[in-house]
Design brief:
The structure holds three protein chains of three kinds.
Chain A (H helix, E strand, L loop, with lengths): L1 H31 L7 H17 L5 H30 L3 H27 L12 E4 L2 E4 H23 L1 H11 L1 H6 L4 H26 L7 H15 L4 H21 L4 H15 L9
Antiparallel strand pairs in A: 1-2
Chain B lengths: L1 E12 L2 E12 L3 E5 L6 H8 L7 E6 L2 E2 L5 H7 L1 E3 L12 H11 L7 H15 L14 H14 L4 E5 L7 H16 L3 E5 L3 H7 L2 E6 L2 E6 L1 H6 L1 H8 L2
Parallel strand pairs in B: 3-8, 3-9, 6-7, 7-8
Antiparallel strand pairs in B: 1-2, 1-4, 4-5, 9-10
Helix pairs in contact in B: 3-4, 3-5, 4-5
Chain C lengths: L1 H30 L3 H26 L6 H15 L5 H23 L4 H27 L4 E2 L5 H24 L1 H11 L1 H6 L4 H27 L1 E2 L1 H4 L3 H13 L5 H17 L4 H18 L3 H20 L1
Antiparallel strand pairs in C: 1-2
Helix pairs in contact in C: 2-6, 2-7, 2-9, 2-11, 2-12, 3-4, 3-5, 3-9, 3-11, 4-9, 6-7, 6-9, 7-9, 11-12, 11-13, 11-14, 12-13
Classes of the chains: A mainly alpha, B alpha/beta, C mainly alpha.
C-alpha cells in the first residue's frame, strides 16, 4: 500500500517537474510578453528532437546537450519575438487586439514548426534510451532517467528563481511583468526585455523537451498536448504568476498520476475538468492576480 | 421620492477599499453632484450602481427595488443609464446605429425598427448632432462623441442618468453647451447624477453635492454648504 | 417613393446574379461530373465552415479554435447513426449535436475574458479526441468506425443545401438587430451591456448557431471517408483553415471569407499531391504574413485601394 502511494506520488512529481518547467515557460511568455504562445509545445518538440539528433547522429550525451539545445531554442524564440511579435505589438490597435493577433500568429507558427519537423524527422514515433536502468526508492522502482529529469527540473527552476530574484536583468523582468509602461520610463529597454522573456520561455520549453526525450518516445505531433497542459497549469497557478505556474505544475503532475493510477488514458480529461472547475469558480487561479 | 439609495456600499480592490461604507440617496428630479479628488472612488461608485462591478457589501435600491446582484443590461432596462469617463462609443459603427442600439435594446419590450430609427434620429437632434448619421462614430470630435454617448444613454429611456465627467476635455464654450444639455435633460424629467471636476459647472447646475475622499463620504449638502465646508476645502487644498 | 425604387434596384442586380449562380451550382454535376464535383464539394464545405466561423468570431472578436470539434461531432454522428437513420435526419442531428456542444462550451466560457474562450476552444479538439479514444478503447472496444457510403453527387447536393442555408443565416444575422448587437459587443462589450444588451446570451446563442452548419457539414463529409477514427475526425487543421481563409479574405463583408475559402481550398487540393507538409507550412506562413501586413484581409485591401483611386478622382474635380 505504501509502496503504491510512493509510486504514485513520486511518479506525479516526476511528471510534475516537466509540467512545472513548461508552465513557467508559458507564464514568462504570457505573463510578461503578453503572448499566449499556443506553439509552445512545438518548441518542446524541437528541444526533444534536437536532443535526439545530437545523441543519435553525433553521439552527444543529452545532459551535455542542455548547453546546446537551450541556447539554440532561446535564440529562435528571441528572434521570433523581436521580429514577429514586437511588430504585432506596435501595430495592434489595443492590448486586447494584440493578445488576439499574437494568439493567431502563434497558431500559424504551430503549423509551420510542426510540419517543418515532420519534413525533417518524419511523423512516426522516435526515441532513444539513456540512463534507463532502474533505481529502487523505498520499494518503488523508478528509471534513473526520470529521477535525473526531476532533479534537473527542480534545479533549473531554482536557478531561474535566483535569476529573477537576484540579478539586475531578473528584476527588470519582474518590473516589466508588473507594469511595462513604468518600467519603460525607468530605463528598462522594454522591447529587449520582452523578447528576452519570450526567449527564456522558449528556453524552458527546449529544456523540457530535452528531459522528455530522455524518458519517453517522441513524435513530431507531441507538442499539442503539452501546450494544453501548460495552459491549464498557468491558469491553475494564476495567469501571470511564475511561482504559481511552477507549483501548479507539480500539483497537476500529482493529480495526473493519481488519475492514471485509477484509470489510465483519462488524465487529459481530468485536467480539463479541473480547468473547467477553475474557470467556473476562480479564473484567477491559486496565486493569480488579474 | 428617493429614486436611488445606497446603504453601506463597499468595494475592495485587493486590500484597498475603493468605496468604503457609503450611504447615499438621490431624490427624483434633482441634479446631484458627486465630487472628490482623483481616486476618491466616484467612478467606482457609478460602476457599482450600474453593476459594471460587483460590490463587496451593502445594498443599492432603485425606486425602492434592490438592484444589487443584477446584470448591467437588466439595470439599464429598469431605467438607469450612464456615460463613461473614457467615452465608450461603438467606434466603427455609424453614429445613428450607436443610438439605435439603445432604442432597440434599452427597454423591454423593445421597439419596432422603424419607430426606433425615428426616435434615434430625434435624440441625435436633441443632443445637437443632426447631419452626421452615417459617419462612423470614431470620426467624430470628442465633444460630439460625448454627445453621442449621451444620446445613446437617453435612447434607453432612463429615469436616472449617471454622467461621468461629461465636461472633461471640453473648452469653455463646449462646457457651457454641455451644462445646457444637462438642464434640458433634467427638464424632460430625468434625474441626473454627475461626476465632475469642473467646479463651476457642478456648483451652478447641481442642487445637492456629495463629496468622496479615499472611498468615504466626507460631506454632503447644497453647493453653498460644500463650498464653505472646511473639510472639503482641506481635502482639495491638501492634494 | 424614391426609397422603394432605390432599394428594389439595389437588390435586383445582386439578386439576379445570386439566382444565376445558384442555378449553375445546382446543375453543375450534369455538365461537369467526376472530380470537379468532388472539388466543388470541398470548396463548399470550407465556405460553410469559414462563413460559420465568421458569424460569431467576426463581429465579436472572440477567436474560436473549436471548429474542428464541431465538425468532428458531425462526423461521429454520421458514423454512429448513419446506418440506423435516413441521411437528412442524420445530418440534422449532426448539426443539433454540434449546437448542444457549442451551447455548453459557450455557457462555460463566454462569461469570461476572450482569452479564456480562445484557449478553451483550442484544447477542446484534443480533449474530445482523447475522451473518444478512451471510450472506443474501453467501452465499445472498437477502434474507429465505418461510415455509410454515399455517392459523390448526393454529397454535393447536400453540401450545396447546407451552403445555401449557411449563407442565408449569415446574411440575415448580419442585417438584423441581432447582428448590430453582435457588432457592438465586439466594439465595446461593456458599453453594449449598459445599452441593454444581454451580452452573454447573445454570444452563447450566436456561437451555438455558428456550430450547427459545421456539424452538418461534418456529417455529410464523413461519408467520403468510409472509415474514421478520433484522429481523422478531430483534426486541428479544420480549426486552422477557417481562421486562415477568413482573415485572408477579410471579415468586413460576407464575400471575403467566401473568396478566402475558394482560394485556399483550391490551393490545398493542388498542393496536397506534392509533399503535404509543404502546403501546411506555406499556409502557416501566409496566416502569419496576413496578420502582420493585411489585417483587413484581401477585401479590406481592395477596398482601401478602391477608396484611394476614387478619392483621388474626387480631389481632381
Amino acid at each position: 500500500m505504501l509502496v503504491t502511494m510512493l509510486d504514485v506520488v513520486i511518479g506525479g512529481l516526476l511528471m510534475g517537474g516537466i509540467y512545472a518547467l513548461i508552465a513557467v515557460g508559458l507564464s514568462l511568455q504570457y505573463g510578461v510578453a503578453r503572448v499566449l504562445n499556443i506553439a509552445h509545445g512545438e518548441f518542446i518538440m524541437l528541444g526533444a528532437f534536437a536532443t535526439w539528433t545530437l545523441y543519435i547522429v553525433f553521439g552527444i550525451n543529452p545532459l551535455v546537450s542542455l548547453v546546446i539545445v537551450g541556447p539554440v531554442v532561446f535564440i529562435i524564440g528571441f528572434i521570433l519575438h523581436r521580429t514577429l511579435f514586437t511588430r504585432l505589438r506596435t501595430s495592434s490597435a489595443s492590448p486586447a487586439a494584440f493578445e488576439g493577433n499574437s494568439l493567431l500568429a502563434s497558431f500559424g507558427l504551430l503549423f509551420i514548426i510542426q510540419n517543418v519537423a515532420i519534413l525533417i524527422w518524419g511523423s512516426a514515433p522516435s526515441g532513444y534510451t539513456y540512463l534507463a536502468f532502474p533505481v529502487n526508492l523505498g520499494g518503488a522502482i523508478f528509471a534513473a532517467n526520470r529521477l535525473v529529469t526531476l532533479g534537473f527540473a527542480v534545479g533549473i527552476g531554482l536557478v531561474f528563481y535566483l535569476f529573477l530574484a537576484r540579478t539586475r536583468l531578473g528584476k527588470a523582468i519582474r518590473a516589466a511583468a508588473q507594469d511595462p509602461a513604468t518600467a519603460g520610463l525607468m530605463g528598462v529597454n522594454i522591447n529587449r526585455v520582452l523578447a528576452l522573456c519570450f526567449g527564456l520561455g522558449a528556453l524552458m520549453a527546449g529544456f523540457a523537451g530535452l528531459l522528455i526525450s530522455m524518458c519517453f518516445s517522441i513524435q513530431a505531433t507531441m507538442g499539442l498536448q503539452y501546450t494544453i497542459i501548460a495552459i491549464i497549469v498557468v491558469v491553475l497557478g494564476g495567469l501571470g504568476s511564475i511561482p504559481g505556474s511552477f507549483i501548479g505544475g507539480f500539483i497537476l503532475g500529482l493529480i495526473g498520476s493519481i488519475v492514471t493510477y485509477i484509470e489510465p488514458g483519462l488524465s487529459l480529461a481530468a485536467y480539463y475538468v479541473i480547468f473547467i472547475l477553475l474557470l467556473l469558480v476562480k479564473p484567477t487561479g491559486i496565486m493569480g492576480k488579474k | 421620492m428617493r429614486i436611488l439609495e445606497g446603504e453601506g456600499v463597499t468595494k475592495y480592490f485587493g486590500g484597498l477599499a475603493a468605496v468604503s461604507n457609503v450611504d447615499f440617496h438621490v431624490d427624483q428630479g434633482e441634479i446631484a453632484g458627486l465630487i472628490g479628488p482623483n481616486g476618491a472612488g466616484k467612478t467606482t461608485l457609478f460602476n457599482l450602481i450600474s453593476a459594471a462591478l460587483v460590490l463587496k457589501s451593502g445594498i443599492i435600491r432603485f425606486k425602492g427595488e434592490k438592484i444589487t446582484g443584477l446584470k448591467p443590461h437588466q439595470i439599464c432596462r429598469m431605467g438607469v443609464a450612464r456615460t463613461f469617463q473614457e467615452v465608450k462609443i461603438f467606434a466603427n459603427m455609424p453614429v445613428l446605429e450607436n443610438v439605435l442600439l439603445g432604442s432597440l435594446f434599452g427597454t423591454s419590450p423593445g421597439m419596432s425598427s422603424a419607430d426606433a430609427a425615428r426616435e434615434a434620429a430625434g435624440l441625435l437632434e436633441f443632443v445637437g448632432l443632426p447631419a452626421v448619421s452615417a459617419t462612423p462614430a470614431k470620426d467624430l470630435t470628442l465633444p460630439n462623441q460625448k454627445r453621442l454617448e449621451v444620446a445613446r444613454a437617453l435612447a434607453t429611456k432612463p429615469e436616472l442618468l449617471l454622467l461621468d465627467e461629461l465636461m472633461a476635455g471640453l473648452n469653455p464654450t463646449e462646457t457651457a453647451e454641455a451644462m445646457e444639455l444637462v438642464t434640458r435633460i433634467r427638464d424632460k424629467g430625468i434625474t441626473i447624477i454627475m461626476i465632475e471636476h469642473v467646479m463651476k459647472a457642478i456648483m451652478s447646475v447641481c442642487e445637492r453635492i456629495m463629496v468622496l475622499h479615499h472611498g468615504e463620504k466626507i460631506a454632503e449638502g447644497t453647493p453653498e454648504e460644500i463650498a464653505t465646508s472646511k473639510k472639503v476645502i482641506e481635502v482639495y487644498l491638501g492634494e | 417613393m424614391d426609397i422603394n425604387t432605390f432599394t428594389s434596384k439595389r437588390f435586383l442586380v445582386p439578386g439576379l446574379i445570386t439566382l444565376i449562380l445558384l442555378i449553375l451550382l445546382a446543375t453543375f454535376p450534369l455538365y461537369l461530373p467526376g472530380y470537379p464535383v468532388i472539388l466543388l464539394s470541398s470548396i463548399l464545405m470550407y465556405i460553410v465552415i469559414t462563413v460559420s466561423w465568421v458569424i460569431f468570431s467576426g463581429p465579436t472578436g472572440y477567436m474560436s479554435l473549436a471548429s474542428a470539434a464541431f465538425f468532428g461531432v458531425g462526423i461521429y454522428t454520421a458514423a454512429i447513426l448513419g446506418e440506423a437513420l435516413p441521411l437528412p435526419i442524420v445530418i440534422g442531428i449532426g448539426g443539433l449535436a454540434s449546437f448542444c456542444v457549442a451551447l455548453l462550451v459557450g455557457a462555460l466560457t463566454l462569461r469570461l475574458r476572450g482569452i479564456y474562450f480562445a484557449i478553451f476552444t483550442f484544447g477542446l479538439v484534443e480533449l474530445i479526441k482523447h475522451v473518444l479514444l478512451f471510450w472506443e478503447l474501453h467501452v465499445t472496444g472498437t477502434r474507429g468506425r465505418f461510415v455509410i457510403v454515399v455517392d459523390y453527387t448526393t454529397v454535393y447536393y447536400v453540401m450545396l443545401v447546407i451552403f445555401v442555408m449557411t449563407m442565408l443565416t449569415a446574411y440575415f444575422i448580419r442585417r438584423s438587430k441581432f447582428g448590430s448587437a453582435l457588432q457592438s459587443i465586439g466594439e465595446n462589450e461593456e458599453a453594449a451591456a449598459h445599452t441593454g444588451i444581454n451580452v452573454t446570451l447573445v454570444k452563447v446563442i450566436t456561437f451555438a448557431i455558428s456550430a450547427v452548419f459545421m456539424g452538418a457539414a461534418g456529417a455529410i463529409m464523413a461519408t467520403r471517408w468510409t472509415y474514421i477514427d478520433p484522429y481523422i475526425a478531430f483534426n486541428l487543421l479544420i480549426s486552422f483553415m477557417p481562421v486562415l481563409m477568413a482573415i485572408f479574405g477579410g471579415m468586413g463583408q460576407l464575400y471575403g471569407p467566401v473568396i478566402g475559402a475558394i482560394i485556399f481550398t483550391y490551393l490545398k487540393e493542388e498542393l496536397i499531391t506534392r509533399i503535404p507538409e509543404l502546403y501546411m507550412i506555406i499556409f502557416g506562413v501566409v496566416l502569419v504574413a496576413v496578420i502582420l501586413f493585411l489585417p483587413n484581409g484581401l477585401v479590406g485591401l481592395i477596398q482601401k485601394l478602391w477608396k484611394r483611386v476614387t478619392g483621388e478622382q474626387h480631389e481632381n474635380t
